[in-house]
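Researcher: Please predict.
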Amino acid sequence: MNKIMKKKSLTIAHSNLQCGVNATKGWWHYALLSWRYFFPHSLRAAHRTKRFINDELLDVISFSEIEGISFRSGGIDHMQYLAKRTGLKYVRFFATHRVRGIINQGNAIMSKYPIKRLQEHRLPGAGQSRFLGSCELDVNGTAVAYFVTHLGLSKKDRVLQIKKISKIIAQTKNEHIILAGDFNTIDHDELVPITKQLQDIPFAENYPSWNPTRTLDYIFVSKALTVEDQAVLTSARFSDHLPLRAKIKID
């Protein structure tokens, strides 16, 4: 019975890691720590993320604004740092923003289950390049399609990006689908193309982390997945966004 329950349940999370800048105290903190966007800094945010993953017993976590090997990361791959210190040994990094070895920013998925069928879809828009990363998780023989993204700051760009994501979701044959990311919007009307296809897990506000007044990050799941519990982790402050955590049942 325990084996069956383990197979049928997943504890997942999403976090915008802010590339480890760790602005968590107020708007003034951005200015004080602005140098961290370009220069090497401590792994304090990564260490707190590791503690969050272990404390919440996560099976899968996705990230926006996580840093690969770069100058500003001090030559440390944040995903590998976390993989070595948690049970999430399967890692996929989707690079989205690289600047001459100084910056190597992207989205990522970390899982205790094997990751297969990797794809990266470039999204439309005029600003910084945006992408939808996708993979398939093998959850003890059950295939789960997992998508992660980080949308643009412009509404015009987001409308195009959401339309493209909706089209990709519609073409996904897997009935078990999870879509997570920083959608950079509080306007649920923008999300209608996605909410017509997937369930929007209702989370409380998660931005800014020191006084949340807006919801910018979302997790959507298909109807073949049942949400058993969800929370914004107010005590897990390692970024300017608070992380989302959900427990889901695979029907």
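Model: Residues 1-5 have pLDDT under 50 and may be disordered.
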